[in-house]
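Researcher: Sequence recovery benchmark, item below. Answer with residues only.
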């Protein structure tokens, strides 16, 4: 496919201040401003900053991905598919594991420190010169848009955040909106989330936005369809099958991959190629007018120039997002990292552990869990863990997980109290005063060659593992 350049023009902003922060100073500034401007639900200040940059949010074709879990993974899969179409793709995901840079990617390459610093100074100085006090997610979103515009991307894919902050993707006019899954809300018996939760994932839907979901609840899908049509959006057929990823990723991430495939297909065929008379056959498109069985000439061309298929693409694709269900098989014992922080994600993690055990019997299992999500249902979490250990042997070590600045409402749970409750449920559990202590306990309790250590409960737990390994940057 021919690469189409998006003409954004030069950015236009107010006279910027002269201050040039270093990389460390930018990080310090972002860490300090997560609680700024939390009451601006209409994004009035961010809109003014966007206008100062020539309304860059409207000049870049965008895709927004929201949902309870699997957003970053879906974005990663979508970006890889669009790269197969020779499109330039920018992605903006959350949260980061070790550095803010991880949130920004151009054609699957993370932004460099110098570029990150330059863009941050451009945006922060513009906001300050206009007297706009913005929070960090607003600044990071504008940084992403400015960066992608300067790089002339064909499409930018942004993750709708769930941090309790105003949803910055409402600023966009997305061509496609994808919703991964909406966890059960006030009506678990009906397998239906409350309407407020559902609508929160559709804030960015505008007139003619194509919307597709991988949620499996018919009630949720019906509510979404009604909201989308009321907004003038285009409701697409929901995802019904899994993409054929290698085991065990198909069972865990196959629905996210299938959603990514649909998002990419809609964007290529409905947005990029909608005015094309003829196009070259690609991974996601076919030559217009070609239906039914291929001609003998088409078969001959196919044999001489074999084309990569979607089946082959998924066969060769695995999860490459560090810390998001990442299995480190070179470690002794094996280490599984997962930033699962809510019931739905932790349930999926436990399924993943069982699938790994089916693939190759584990000689010892130790789960290190630390959570700082104030909204997590602790009672249900304990039941989930108890049920898992009824079917699997192993132990769990509970430790504190201090929330980072961006987790504005988070608080670490009481490790001693959680461990005590698990012991009362006949689960082999113990509390640790720190992650370092928990890691030491886990390593001593499993086989060095065939054992498995699982580290999860929050992004901070994954960060703690890399810090313990002496890794400063992923």
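Model:
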């Amino acid at each position: 496919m021919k690469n189409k350049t998006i003409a954004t023009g030069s950015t236009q902003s107010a006279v910027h201040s002269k201050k040039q922060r270093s990389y460390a100073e930018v990080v310090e500034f972002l860490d300090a401003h997560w609680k700024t401007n939390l009451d601006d639900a209409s994004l009035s200040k961010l809109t003014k900053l966007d206008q100062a940059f020539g309304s860059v949010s409207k000049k870049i074709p965008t895709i927004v991905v929201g949902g309870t879990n699997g957003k970053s993974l879906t974005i990663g899969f979508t970006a890889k598919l669009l790269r197969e179409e020779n499109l330039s793709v920018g992605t903006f995901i959350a949260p980061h594991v070790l550095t803010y840079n991880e949130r920004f990617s151009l054609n699957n390459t993370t932004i460099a420190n110098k570029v990150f610093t330059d863009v941050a100074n451009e945006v922060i100085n513009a906001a300050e010169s206009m007297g706009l006090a913005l929070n960090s997610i607003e600044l990071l979103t504008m940084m992403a848009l400015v960066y992608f515009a300067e790089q002339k991307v064909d499409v930018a894919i942004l993750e709708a955040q769930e941090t309790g902050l105003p949803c910055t993707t409402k600023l966009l006019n997305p061509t496609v909106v994808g919703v991964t899954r909406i966890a059960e809300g006030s009506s678990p018996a009906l397998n239906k989330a409350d309407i407020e939760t559902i609508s929160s994932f559709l804030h960015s839907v505008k007139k003619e936005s194509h919307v597709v979901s991988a949620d499996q609840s018919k009630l949720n899908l019906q509510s979404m369809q009604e909201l989308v049509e009321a907004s003038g959006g285009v409701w697409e057929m929901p995802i019904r099958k899994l993409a054929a990823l290698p085991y065990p990723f198909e069972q865990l991430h196959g629905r996210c991959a299938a959603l990514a495939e649909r998002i990419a297909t809609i964007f290529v065929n409905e947005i990029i190629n909608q005015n094309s008379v003829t196009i070259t056959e690609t991974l996601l498109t076919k030559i217009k007018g070609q239906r039914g069985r291929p001609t003998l000439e088409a078969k001959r061309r196919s044999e001489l120039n074999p084309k990569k298929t979607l089946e082959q693409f998924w066969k060769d694709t695995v999860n490459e997002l560090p810390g998001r269900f990442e299995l480190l098989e070179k470690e002794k014992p094996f280490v599984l990292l997962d930033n699962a922080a809510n019931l739905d994600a932790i349930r999926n993690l436990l399924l993943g552990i069982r699938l790994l055990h089916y693939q190759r019997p584990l000689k010892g299992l130790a789960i290190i869990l630390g959570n700082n999500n104030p909204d997590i249902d602790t009672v249900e979490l304990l039941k989930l863990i108890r049920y898992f250990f009824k079917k699997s042997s192993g132990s769990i070590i509970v430790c504190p997980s201090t929330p980072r600045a961006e987790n504005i409402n988070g608080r670490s749970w009481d490790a001693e109290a959680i461990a005590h409750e698990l012991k009362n449920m006949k689960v082999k559990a113990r509390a640790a005063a720190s992650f370092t202590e928990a890691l030491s306990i886990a390593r001593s309790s499993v086989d060095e060659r065939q054992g498995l250590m699982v580290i999860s409960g929050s992004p901070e737990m994954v960060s703690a593992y890399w810090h313990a390994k002496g890794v400063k940057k992923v």
